[in-house]
Amino acid sequence: MADNDLIQPHQFIIIEMPSGNSKIINLKPNTMISLGKFGNFQSDNLIGKPYGLSYEIMGNKGEIKPVGHVSKNTSIEETDANNQTIIDDTSVQKLSHEEVLKLKEMGLRGELDTEEIIKKMVDSHAEFSKKTEYSKAKYIERKKKKFMKVFTPVRPTLNTISNYFFSKNPEKIKHIRIDTLSILLSMANVHANAKLLVVDDTQGLIVASCLERMGGFGQLVALHEGDFHNYDILRYMNFPKSVQDTLYTVPFAMIDPTTPEEPFDVLTEDQVNQLDDDQKRAYQRRKTAWDYKVKSRKLLFEGDFDGLIISSAFQPESVLKVLKDYVAGSRPIVIYSFSKEVLLQAAFWMRRTRDFLNADVTESSLREYQVLPGRMHPNMNMSAGGGYLLSALRVIDCPYDPTLAKRGDNEKRSKKKKKKNDKKEPLANQKEEKQDDQKMEEVKLEENVNMEETQ
Predict the structure, then answer these.
(1) Is 344 exposed, middle or buried (0-12, 13-18, 19+ CB in 10 A)?
(2) CA atoms of 438 and 430, how far apart (whole Å)
(3) CA distance 103 to 86
(4) Pairwise CA distance, residues 413 & 131, whole Å
C-alpha cells in the first residue's frame, strides 16, 4: 500500500463520528485528540493506518482498534407486529437519567462495553418487544450512534470538504453545493494544462477544486480583495508542492496595467555575500515574494486564458467589463451566485453586448436517498437550493474588412451571370422573329380576303 493511501503526520483529516457530525483535525504526532463525549485517542495510534476504516476507542489511554462501521446493517425480516399500541414516552424506560449517565461514564472509562450498555437499555425498555423489526433496528441504531466510541478517518477531498462546510458552515462557501460545483467545473472546461482566471470568494473552495482537477499541470491566476488572499480551504486539501506552484494570486488593486510594481532593491551577488545568514534568509524570502507578485501580474496581463470563473460579492457586470479582454475567443465564462436575480441582470447585460454568446442561467437539483433493504426513500431533511450558474462563451467581435476578401471572386460571379444572359438572349430573339412572321402571314391573309370580296 502506497504512503498516500495511509494517514500521514502533520496532515489534515476529517473525523466522522457516530452521531453523523464531522471534525477536521491536524494530526500532529504525540498528541491526544479529543472527540468530546465519544472520548479521546492518541494520534500516534492513527498514523500509518488506512483511510476509511472505523476505529473504536478502548479505555481512557487513547488505544484504538478496527471495528465494523456503525452504519452497517443486517438483514431484517418483517413480522405482523405494529406500533399502534406502543406508548412512546420516558415512562417506558425503567433506567433513570442518573443511571444512564453513570453507564456513559463507565463506557468512557472503558469499564463497560458499548454492547453491554445498549443491552441494558433494551432490557429495561418496557415496550421494546412490541416494536416491529424495523423499529427495533432503528432504536438500536440510535443508541449505537449515541454510546459507541467509534470514529472513521476520511481523506480530505473536494467531495468530503464541500459536504463538510455545506452542512457545518454554508455561509463560508456561499451556499455552493457539491452538484453545483461539479457542474461549474464542467461548464468551465477545467482540465490539466489549462490556463484559468478565477475570482473566488468561497474561502478557496472553487480554487481548490480547480487545482485538484488540474493535478499540478497548467496555470491558475486568482484575483482577490485586500493585500493577501483568504483561501482557507486550500490548507485542508493537503496539496503537494507541485499543485500549489500552479497557483498565482493578484489583488484587485494591482489589476490595472498602469499601476507600477512595488519597489524592491535587488542586490548584486557581492552585496548578498556581505550579508550574514539571517539577513540572507530574510532577503531571499522578500525576493521570492516579489518575484512571485511580478510573475503573477505578468501572467494576468498576457491574457489568452482558457476560461473565466467568477464568484464575487461585486456585480458580475463590473467584473466582466475589466476581465473579459483577458479571455481568449470561444472560451467559457461561468459565474456563480446564490441569488438568481443577480445573474438574471448580468445575463440581460451580456445578451446586449457583442462580447458574449449563449448567456444562460441554470440551476441543478440534488435529492438524497436512504438506501436500505426494504427501506429506500428520500431523506426528509434536504437543502432547498445550491446556487445558480450563468454560463456563456467569449466572442471576439471582428468587423467586416473589405480588404480581407479574396480578389477575383466578384469578377468570377459577374462572368457567370453574363454567360447565363448570353445563353438566354439568342433564344429570346428566335421567339421574337417567329412571332413577327406569324403576324405578317395573318396580315397577308386578311388582304387576300378583302380583295376577293370586292371583286
Answers:
(1) middle
(2) 13
(3) 26
(4) 90
Q: How far apart are CA 71 and CA 57, in angstroms?
A: 17
Q: CA torsion angle for 29, 35, 36, 42 (degrees, to 10)?
A: -40
Q: d(Cα 259, Cα 255) in Å, to the nearest integer?
A: 8
Q: Convert 388-409 to b/e letters by CB count within 10 Å (16 or more is b).
A: bbbbbebbeeeeeeeeeeeeee
- Tell me which H or E stretch contains 452: helix 409-454
Q: Are 179 and 386 in contact (CB under 8 A)?
A: yes
State pLDDT tens for residues 289-326.
Answer: 999 999 999 999 999 999 999 999 999 999 999 999 99
What DSSP string describes 368-390?
Answer: -EE--TT--EE-SS--S---EEE
Q: Which residue has the higher pLDDT, 63 or 422?
A: 63
Give the other-Cβ count within 10 Å of 257's Cβ: 8
Q: Where are the alpha helices (DSSP H) in 304-408?
A: 316-323, 340-352
pLDDT mean across residues, the chain: 82
Residue-wise pLDDT tens digits, 219-269: 999 999 988 899 999 999 999 999 999 999 999 999 999 888 888 888 888
Q: Mind giving me the DSSP string for 130-167? A: GS-HHHHHHHHHHHHHHH--EEEEE---HHHHHHHHHH
The model's pTM is 0.78
Is residue 166 within 8 A of residue 177, CB to CB? The reply is: yes
- Report the relative pairing of strands 150-154 and 54-58 from DSSP bridges: antiparallel
Q: Is 282 helix (H, G, I), strand (E, B) or coil?
A: helix
pLDDT digits over 399-425, tens only? 766 666 555 555 555 555 555 555 555
Which residue, among 94, 84, 81, has the nearest Cα to 126 in the 3D structure? 94
Q: How far apart are CA 164 and CA 22, in angstroms?
A: 7
Residue 45 carries which side chain, given as an amino acid letter? Answer: N
d(CA 178, CA 168): 14
Q: Which of 214, 210, 205 is nearest to 234 (CA)?
A: 205
Contact 154, 13 (CB under 8 A): yes
Angle between helices 114-123 and 133-147 (to 10 degrees): 140
3-class state of residue 386 by DSSP: coil
Q: Is 95 helix (H, G, I), strand (E, B) or coil?
A: coil
